[in-house]
Input
Amino acid sequence: MKIGLPRALEYHRSHRVWEAFFGGLGIDTVTSPETDACILKRGAELSVDESCLAAKIYMGHVDWLKGKCDMILAPRLDNFEAGEDVCVKFNALYDTAKAATGGPILGYNVDGKAGCSEQNAFIKMGKGLGLPRRRVAAALKTALCEDTLARRRLKENARQTFDTGSKPKVLIVGHTYNVYDKLIGAPIINYLSEAGIDVILASECGSDPRLAAKLARTLYWTYSKELVAATAEYKDRADGIVLITAFPCGPDSLTNELLLRKLKSLPVLNIIADEHTSGTGLETRLESFADVLQARLKIY
Ligand code: SF4
Output
């Protein structure tokens, strides 16, 4: 059996667990390639216009995997517990992937409020594949350990980057699937790095989610809270902040507006990417932002 992993949305948060979990069970995986113009175009064709850019890209990756695997993994994520919700787009992934491919989709349901935790969901999925519970639980345990170690390393790297060197430091506040995406986040990160700026991703900071309350007390989207928590922890050590959003994102439109109001003492660049984002326009904005950072460092 070969399972397809669409390189979009939840992939960027969970791929280490998925790969180690299926690998531990002796199941092959195939991952769609980095997003390119063809994947985006196909995803946009398969999506409704109102869909956010990240969800359109997801559909393109699902479509790419059609015919290249036996099942495509598309979890249905609703919430991790009360007050820890996930954007509704994640709740619809299973159904949208099924509608796009018409083929067999492998899903797992995470609905903590209804008693289905992420771990239980993995066990149920493994058992659904006909594997014994003990073997599934062992594969999951190993996968989660590997993921915890990898997250710890990322967190340590982020801290070290803030602690060392004299380059300007920029905190990139954006969901993993936006900042890691080849078309959305990569050009921004590459530009800033080449301009001599240290880039730290809020999604890699591993900040205590409770810190989010310092900037926003009523947020209930778990992934947004992680980003706001990192912003709260590092805003006084960053020289600037870049917000990256996929148009038209509901949660980010609220969260980023709130951050823009709270971070008045810092240069903040708010980038909203859509299907038509121009590389030239983006470079002009990044160039100006980099100039502001350098000038600010000279003054302070
Ligand atoms: S949080 Fe925003 S970018 Fe992410 S899936 Fe939801 S609408 Fe799209």
